């Protein structure tokens, strides 16, 4: 692969990453760990281990990115998180 091809490929990868949005989940004093974990599994398609790790990060750091992707995919997921009583937003 030539230097120009390598450079073009890197630019395309950077553009793909730059166009991604994130759902950020925020800590609260209301929801239990089990509720947060089960909701992340159902809404964000996390594995149980991934959901548990995210819930701990949220608890100790105050927030955590729980899903990355296109806005059209994230919007209904974020709505479902909010309907479940969690604090989340798309950034």
TrEMBL record:
The keyword NAD does not apply. Pfam families: ClpS. Transmembrane segments: none annotated. It comes from the Bacteria. Residues 20-84 form the Adaptor protein ClpS core domain. Keywords: Hydrolase, Protease. GO terms for biological process: protein catabolic process; proteolysis. One of its GO terms (molecular function) is peptidase activity. This is Clp protease ClpS.
């Amino acid at each position: 692969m030539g230097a120009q091809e390598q450079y073009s490929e890197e630019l395309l990868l950077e553009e793909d990453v730059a166009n991604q949005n994130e759902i950020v989940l925020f800590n609260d004093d209301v929801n239990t760990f089990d509720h947060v974990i089960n909701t992340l599994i159902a809404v964000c398609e996390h594995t149980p281990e991934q959901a548990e790790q995210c819930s701990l990060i949220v608890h100790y750091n105050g927030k955590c990115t729980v899903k990355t992707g296109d806005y059209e995919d994230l919007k209904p997921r974020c709505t479902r998180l909010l309907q479940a009583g969690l604090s989340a937003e798309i950034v």
